[in-house]
Amino acid sequence: MRHVKSTLSLLACLVSLESSPLCAQRLPESSQPDTRPVLAAGRIAIETPQSTSQTPSAGTVRQNSKDGLKYVWIPAGTFMMGCSPGDSECDSSEKPAHQVTITEGFWIGQTPVTVGAYRRFASATGQQMPSAPSFNTDWTNDNMPIVDVSWNDSQAYCQWAGGRLPTEAEWEYASRAGSTEARYGPLDDVAWYSSNSGGRTHDVAEKRANGFGLYDTLGNVSQWVNDWYDAHYYQSSPSQDPAGPGSGQYRVLRGGSWVYPPSGVRATDRYYFEPARWIYIGGFRCVGDTTIRATLAEPAQAAAPAQPAPRVETLGTTPQSPSGGTVLQNSKDGLNYVWIPPGSFMMGCSPRDNECFGNEKPSHQVTITKGFLIGQTVVTVGAYQRFASATGRQMPTAPDFNSSWANQNMPIVNINWDDSQAYCQWSGGHLPTEAEWEYAARAGSTQARYGPLNQVAWYWGNNRWGTHDVAQKRANGFGLYDTLGNVWQWVNDWYDANYYQSSPSTDPAGPGSGQFRVLRGGDWFELAKNVRVSTRNYVSPWTRGNLFGVRCVGEANFP
Q1: Is-contact 297 62, C-beta < 8 A?
Q2: Are 470 and 391 members of one domain?
Q3: Are 292 and 397 within one domain?
Q4: What residues contact residue 23 under an 8 Å CB cut-off, 6+ apart?
Q5: Is position 3 within any domain?
């Protein structure tokens, strides 16, 4: 790995707290020179990275000039469709669970279609507005989802907007956003349903978004999809881009609504209705591929819809298996930890990522069989000071960009693998394995990054010569911050460049021994091409530098 090694060698010579043979380490893996001009004290001049692909990054948001709504890019990928593991509320139409591959990325509405957007359609086409419900008399609230529309109405709108209705597979893939559970978070955090709706729909985007940045995929309104309904379709569904039966009597609705009980507000629940009839719980969202691109443009810079504060509880007071995305506070270090459910993912080089190194290949399926808690952020200066005070361990030397450790919200740096493991053990946990780290960092994304780089990471193209306060960039689908950039993160594994060629498919723990330990995620000083979810860096476990930080993991009973 050329740049990662050359940058770390340079910085270790400059900032390591102890003499390090890193300065005299082996040659980089590539002989291609680093062309960035080196300035005083080894600093590197910042240049604007150039875009290398026309394919948007996962989570990219564009505004449709026809309906005024925002659409989110969903990358191609593979997922398990149908009844979620451990979900006892599935009916037979949701079974068997089966692997589905979506071979082409697509745009999908960030929210269900709103009253205001549907009014544009009606005005432009002469279509009559549906009858307004009692909770939105005369359609006075433009931000509520449109309801009481038929499948035919919904398809006509999507065609006018430049797209179409999603297939069931596209809808569920986008709704899950990498989650393997029945819901992508605690129900009250993510959905309006019978117990919290007050008997009405609510403005879109008031609940927490999923991993792709979509709102109201569960609850608020049931959403028409393109497919005809067949209760037995999953028994013979194609494994690639299933489009549903060729004909039928009913069309499918997904996601549940404001009147549904919890059992109906799940990512896999399938409802059906006659396509020509209006249904009072019925709304929809549209998708598009190349045909919708002409109407999509960069939205004006604006604040993202406010998301509710996550529910924070004290570790040790919750059930043994929290819901995915549940946030718990550790009383020892004061940090928040997020519950990551078990699941399967493709580990290693992401599809169409031409910047991967040999040690990231081959890409291979890995199953994490047990859920775990992981730090919502990397360990902060303030949390590490708690550890030092409690154990008598000396604080590392402060870097010049955080003199005397004045800023407690910045990540701790200048720690080695031993320091990191000691901290995690003191806090009640341990360092994550590489597999746990990448599974949590991807949060369902199959791309090299879970969003546009400037939105999710601090790296050499946007930093100010140092780390930044944690949680300033966009969180990933599990609600984790700074999984990319800011600081490299120590993981438990020994390094082996060829490990992926024979890695176990279940809970891989890395080689049994080695010379180097692995770090993941990139840092504030790193080139864009190395700030990717599959990048593997490695140094001797005793090496310290102002690029190295940590986040910990723990079990459900983590104190």
Answers
A1: yes
A2: yes
A3: no
A4: 9, 12, 13
A5: no
State mean pLDDT over 263-269: 97
Q: Which of 253, 276, 297 is the last residue of a domain?
A: 297
Q: Give CA angle at 326 (324, 331), nearest 5°.
A: 140
Residue 386 CB partners (closer than 8 Å, separation 6+): 332, 333, 334
Q: What is the DSSP code (8-state) at residue 323?
A: P
pLDDT tens profile 410-438: 999 999 999 999 999 999 999 999 999 99
Cα separations in angstroms, 8 against 4, 15, 465: 6, 10, 15
Q: Does residue 9 sit within a domain?
A: no
Cβ-defined contacts of 235-242 (< 8 Å, 24+): 235/96, 237/81, 237/98, 237/100, 239/98, 239/99, 239/100, 239/101, 240/100, 240/101, 240/103, 241/101, 241/102, 241/103, 241/104, 241/167, 241/169, 242/100, 242/167, 242/168, 242/169
Q: Are 76 and 351 in contact (CB under 8 A)?
A: yes
pLDDT confidence band for 555 (50 / 70 / 90): confident
Statement to judge: residues 292 and 390 lie in one domain = no
Do 313 and 293 fall into the same domain?
no
**Boundary residue ending a domain (297, 320, 349):** 297
pLDDT digits (tens, 9 = 90+) for 322-370: 666 678 999 999 999 998 888 888 999 998 899 999 999 999 989 888 8
Q: Which of 308, 122, 93, 290 is nearest to 203 (CA)?
A: 308
Range of the domain at 150: 61-297
Assigned token pair, 311: 């529910």
Q: Give how many domains the chain has, as a whole number.
A: 2
What does the buried/exposed string (b/e) look like for 358-392 if buried means 16 or more CB atoms within 10 Å of the residue's CB?
ebbeebbebbbeebbbbbbbbbbbbbbebbbeeee
Q: For residue 510, is it within any domain?
A: yes
Task: Assign residue 280 the CATH number of its domain.
Answer: 3.90.1580.10
In a shared domain, residues 290 and 417 = no
Q: Are residues 411 and 276 in the same domain?
A: no
Q: Whole-prediction pTM value?
A: 0.57
Task: Indicate whether 211 belongs to any domain.
Answer: yes
pLDDT tens digit sequence for 187-232: 999 999 999 999 999 999 999 988 788 999 999 999 999 999 999 9
